[in-house]
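Deliverable D2.4 — example input (structure tokens):
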């Protein structure tokens, strides 16, 4: 019989709970109860270490554990009698007190003989002689997959649930409570307990990406003394991706009502006969969908529900997002799995260990799996593993099975489009912020999504913890801009996207991605140049590239629709194969260097007849001439941190002819932009114009009224802009005007009331003091954002325009983008 059989139900914890109750409620037993609490708390860590060791003890040790279990079980029954005894029955109280003293002596004698110490020594010895538990888990899973294929396991789980068992097994592999899978759980426990204890029932959540330790935290809360004292009963259920809802509902019914064994709950409404009066906690682990959660929790009486999920299913204010480990915690856990101790062994390369552990980015499951896969391996093997990990590849076959397959389960409930959007994230460099605008543009063009649907997909991926969406108060509003809002992604999730995208022959892949920055392109790409590439998305991440560097990569991409060029240099030659990408729709060029780069071979843009979106970041924009070949289908152009130079200043250059269908122009953080060419006003298709964070922009063209299709005009953070031209008031379609942080503006145009379609004005940190009488005619205006000390200029307008909201806004602008 295994040691875990003796401790079913964790009798020691139950006994402690009863003793705490006696200590607070029955004052005649308080002293003896407190002494028993001290005794049991002393032995409890050792008991738990033995319990979670998972080894088979010799018969005589099992008998000794059995004696302790029997004593604790008798103690539990004794405490139940104490709590139920009547105060007036003095003889019974005297008898029970004597029995509690006897219980104390029995436990004390057991401790004096140091039986548990001897048993623990045997446990360590057996563990030392046993095979590594990870190997046993892997063999078991392999056997399950071979035998069952896609059959269900255990009444509702799939093969993915077997991976869940593997995770749970890995959780208890280490040798003490503090060294478990979730090193650093204390902060999470405190926060979740505070949420639950400060409310009378309700729904609370534990959320986080796969492998971050959600279930471990939930299990630890279930065993926590504070939680067990606060709640009179606790139920822990694993829901899984394919739950048997009726069985789970019946289980919850029985737990809350005491009617155990009910096979089917016909009328799922427990709010009768006074409901449930005791404090009860229901922990629902591994919940995948809102539908499953609603099915299990609708019409429940007053109880506390803790839902554990990779998605954010509870209210954000009642959800704890499990964080990855700090560097010191990560190193300790990694060393524990790789070396069997929490610190680096003498003589081993410290920097190598830090670099390998660093690739896990604090994710507990990745640390455990990677550490275990390198256990007892020579340093040269570690170096090879580091190279593979840095490329987003598995360290070895077992690493792929244990980690990446586990993480892939997070994608199981995504629809095909959302899955493709997730895989697109692998096209961006690790540890870099990804502009939301680029993602939205990609998904609009490649996956044929509307902008609103693309944004909803982004939010859904964030709620499922597959990416992190930057917090910005403007995000998601009707006229929000996305070019200065970012998403980030944990490197292990990025590795998953790369792993799934890089399967199959290189020429046949839908995405051709470089996992990290290299001096040159992967050699495998050059070896297959004689065959066309099927890639629709191509991402290249290098340093400086010149003609010689591209000479071995004369590739054909007849299906490519997106090209992302990331580099770090002050000069860069565009790839020759760009001119052959005749189906290209989105081109992103980002220089991560310190100064703007000079690009060569811009002439090949002439062949990009289907290009619809162009993003240039930290580069010198080439000069435009009347001979420049028009980009006839370009709809959106973003110039970020660029040097404009004389691009728009050539006499006679008509930019409306070069970009005849441009609908969205963004110029941001371009510090040498002084004025806009007047020909920009001939862009009759321009719907959105954003000139932001341009410190030298002094004036706007006088003939802006020709922009008959313009709906959005953003001019924020242009401190030298002293006035808005009166022609702005002639824009027939303008709906949104942003002049925030234009600190030199002192007044609004006198005829602003002519803007009959204007719905929103953002003028925070803009010190306009004078009222504009015509503003009362802004009949469509429904939202004005301004500083509190200038809100008075809108008082008359607020009375004249029904439904108008005047918002005194908090400052939301920052330089977070400089963190890159």
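Example output (designed residues):
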């Amino acid at each position: 019989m295994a040691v875990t059989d003796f401790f079913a139900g964790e009798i020691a914890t139950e006994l402690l709970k009863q003793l705490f109750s006696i200590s607070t409620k029955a004052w005649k037993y308080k002293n003896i109860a407190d002494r028993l609490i001290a005794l049991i708390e002393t032995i409890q860590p050792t008991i738990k270490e033995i319990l979670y060791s998972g080894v088979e003890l010799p018969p005589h040790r099992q008998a000794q554990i059995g004696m302790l279990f029997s004593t604790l079980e008798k103690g539990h029954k004794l405490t139940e009698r104490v709590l139920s005894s009547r105060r007036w029955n003095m003889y019974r109280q005297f008898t029970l007190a004597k029995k509690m003293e006897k219980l104390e002596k029995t436990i004390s004698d057991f401790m004096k003989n140091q039986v548990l110490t001897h048993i623990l020594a045997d446990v360590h010895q057996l563990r030392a002689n046993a095979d590594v538990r990870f190997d046993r888990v892997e063999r078991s899973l392999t056997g399950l997959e071979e035998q069952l294929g896609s059959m269900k396991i255990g009444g509702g789980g799939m093969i993915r649930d077997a991976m869940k068992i593997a995770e749970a097994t890995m959780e208890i592999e280490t040798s003490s409570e503090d060294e478990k899978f979730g090193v650093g759980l204390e902060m999470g426990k405190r926060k979740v307990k505070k949420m639950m204890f400060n409310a009378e029932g309700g729904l609370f959540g534990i959320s986080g990406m796969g492998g971050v330790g959600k279930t471990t935290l939930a299990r630890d809360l279930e065993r926590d003394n504070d939680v067990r004292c606060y709640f009179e009963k606790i139920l822990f259920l694993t829901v899984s991706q394919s739950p048997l809802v009726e069985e789970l509902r019946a289980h919850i019914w029985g737990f809350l009502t005491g009617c155990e064994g009910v096979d089917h709950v016909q009328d799922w409404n427990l709010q009768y006969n006074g409901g449930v009066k005791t404090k009860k906690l229901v922990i629902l682990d591994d919940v995948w969908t809102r539908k499953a959660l609603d099915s299990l929790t609708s019409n429940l009486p007053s109880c506390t529900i803790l839902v554990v999920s990779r998605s954010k299913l509870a209210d954000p204010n009642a959800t704890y997002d499990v964080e990855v480990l700090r560097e010191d915690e990560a190193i300790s856990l990694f060393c524990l799995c790789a070396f069997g101790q929490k610190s680096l062994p003498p003589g081993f390369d410290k920097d190598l260990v830090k670099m390998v552990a660093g690739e896990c980015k604090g994710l507990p499951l990745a640390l455990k799996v990677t550490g275990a896969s390198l256990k007892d391996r020579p340093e040269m093997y570690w170096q090879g593993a580091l190279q593979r990990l840095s490329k987003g590849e598995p360290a070895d076959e077992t690493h792929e099975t244990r980690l990446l397959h586990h993480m892939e389960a997070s994608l199981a409930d995504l629809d095909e489009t959302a899955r493709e959007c997730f895989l697109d994230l692998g096209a961006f460099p690790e540890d870099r912020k990804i502009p939301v605008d680029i993602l939205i543009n990609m998904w609009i063009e490649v996956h044929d999504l509307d902008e609103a649907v693309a944004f909803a997909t982004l939010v859904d991926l964030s709620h499922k913890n597959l990416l992190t969406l930057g917090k910005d108060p403007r995000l998601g509003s009707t006229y929000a801009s996305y070019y200065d809002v970012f998403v980030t992604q944990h490197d292990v999730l990025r590795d998953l996207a790369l792993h799934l995208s890089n399967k199959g022959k290189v020429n046949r892949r839908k995405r051709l991605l470089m996992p990290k920055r290299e001096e040159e392109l992967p050699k495998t790409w050059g070896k297959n140049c004689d065959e066309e590439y099927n890639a629709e998305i191509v991402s290249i991440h290098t340093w400086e590239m010149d003609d010689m560097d591209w000479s071995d990569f004369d590739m054909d991409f007849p299906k490519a629709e997106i090209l992302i060029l990331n580099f770090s240099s002050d000069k860069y030659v565009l790839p020759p194969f760009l001119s052959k990408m005749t189906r290209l729709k989105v081109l992103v060029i980002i220089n991560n260097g310190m100064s703007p780069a000079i690009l060569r071979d811009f002439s090949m843009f002439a062949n990009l007849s289907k290009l619809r979106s162009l993003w240039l970041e930290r580069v010198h924009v080439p000069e435009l001439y009347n001979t420049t070949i028009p980009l006839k289908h370009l709809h959106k152009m973003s110039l970020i941190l660029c040097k404009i130079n004389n691009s728009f200043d050539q006499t006679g250059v008509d930019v409306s002819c070069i970009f005849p269908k441009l609908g969205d122009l963004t110029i941001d953080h371009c510090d040498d932009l002084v004025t806009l060419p007047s020909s920009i006003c001939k862009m009759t298709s321009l719907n959105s114009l954003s000139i932001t964070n341009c410190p030298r922009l002094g004036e706007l063209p006088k003939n802006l009224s020709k922009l008959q299709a313009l709906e959005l005009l953003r001019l924020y953070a242009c401190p030298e802009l002293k006035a808005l031209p009166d022609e702005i008031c002639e824009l027939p379609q303008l709906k949104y005007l942003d002049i925030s942080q234009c600190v030199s503006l002192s007044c609004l145009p006198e005829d602003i009331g002519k803007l009959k379609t204007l719905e929103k004005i953002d003028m925070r940190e803009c010190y306009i003091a004078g009222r504009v009488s015509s503003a009362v005619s802004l009949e469509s205006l429904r939202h004005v954002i301004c500083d509190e000390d200038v809100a008075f200029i809108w008082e008359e307008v607020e009375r004249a325009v029904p439904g108008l909201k005047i918002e005194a806004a908090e400052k939301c602008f920052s330089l977070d983008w400089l963190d890159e």
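The longest helix spans residues 59-84.
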